Amino acid sequence: MSEPARTYPRTVACGDAEVEIARMTPGDRDALVDFVAALPTHDLLFVPRDLGHPKVVDAWMRSLETGELASLVARHRASMVGCTAIFVDELSSSKHVGELRVLVAPNWRGRGLGRALIQECFAQALELGLKKLIAQMTVDQRPAIAVFEELGFRAEALLAKHVADRQGKLHDLVLLGHDVDAVSSRMQAYGVSDALGA
């Protein structure tokens, strides 16, 4: 059974700044394009499709409307500084699993924004009735992997030479998984705020 919808926008403290987290809408398209264009290309290797391509962004926006994708956007002074997406394939035998993608602007890393976004995604996963979240990233993204592991994700697989960068160099991906029911149990035992760090 899914959880009640979480209220947005929400304000979270990230270091000495406040960031607004809201549900992404098709109105965020242009800001998303600018945000992705400013990211290092290596940061996007774990994303199955090229986010720099207009058709991919258009598909993302359509998926928001159909509910196939749940996304959050993080803003500081009206500028996008981070975003998330949880992809669920309703037609697969793994429709209880959400694939989590988190992107944070380089100058906002190490300030707690990634952690805050992942915690909000736990709430979204419960709202969607998901049983498991998975995330993947290249093995050299050690700080990001550490944040996921601190929040309970565990390595489940290593995909050797799974993605190629624009220069043709191959990179390994690590697949991390988290049991959403464990988060739900903590919520029941301690309350939503404690379990999600809100």
Question: Would you spell out the secondary-structure blueprint of this structure?
Answer:
Layout: E1 10-14, E2 17-23, H1 29-37, H2 54-66, E3 69-76, E4 79-87, E5 97-104, H3 113-127, E6 132-138, H4 142-150, E7 154-164, E8 170-179, H5 180-190, H6 192-196
Parallel strand pairs: 5-6
Antiparallel strand pairs: 1-2, 2-3, 3-4, 4-5, 6-8, 7-8
Question: What can be said about this structure in brief?
Answer:
The protein is α+β, with helices and mostly antiparallel strands. The protein contains 6 helices and 8 strands; from the N terminus they run ββααβββαβαββαα.
The spatial strand order of the largest sheet comes to 1-2-3-4-5-6-8-7
Instruction: Determine and state the CATH class.
Output: Alpha Beta
**Beta fraction:** 25-35%
Main sheet specs: 8 strands, mixed
Q: Let me know the average pLDDT.
A: 87
Protein model, in words:
- This protein has 198 residues and is α+β, with helices and mostly antiparallel strands.
- The protein has one domain: Gcn5-related N-acetyltransferase (GNAT) (Aminopeptidase, 3-Layer(aba) Sandwich).
- It is 31% helix and 33% strand.
- The two termini are 22 Å apart.
- 31% of the residues are buried.
- Residues 192-198 have low confidence and may be disordered.
